[in-house]
Amino acid sequence: MSHSFYFVLYASTIVFFSSCNVTKSNNSSNTGLFQGTVSFSEGNQMQSNKYTSVLGKGVQREVHIYELTNVKDVEQIDNLYFSPKSKIVAIIVSNTRGEFKQSLPPGTYSVLIKEGDGYFASFLDKENNLHPLQINTGETTTADILINYKVSY
Fold it and tell me: Which CATH number applies to 3-152?
């Protein structure tokens, strides 16, 4: 594969992990807050401005929160996942700018973005869990999710 592909993959990973943070809040209930944005990017990114086009455009999507889900618990076709066997915890709908916010009970979850009949997960952890999310009581977890399965680099 080309060096450009690895650069963009590396840059996307850095953008994702630098966009996730956890902060303390004055949340007195037994929940944590999950907030962030959903962006969509598609097409040939090789000819684009590599610093802006990779970030995508904010979009309205359903953000599905499942109990922690491993790749062995879903069917995969191309870059989408189907038929998760784990329990759905919440469905959040981002606004037209891609912004969302939802209180969740403490726990470890998977974040799946609804795409047609399937789901998109922006990354896997080292145990092959789909986009793991840790929610802690009284804390805010922020994630900026880039849907990029239709991108070529």
Answer: 2.60.40.10
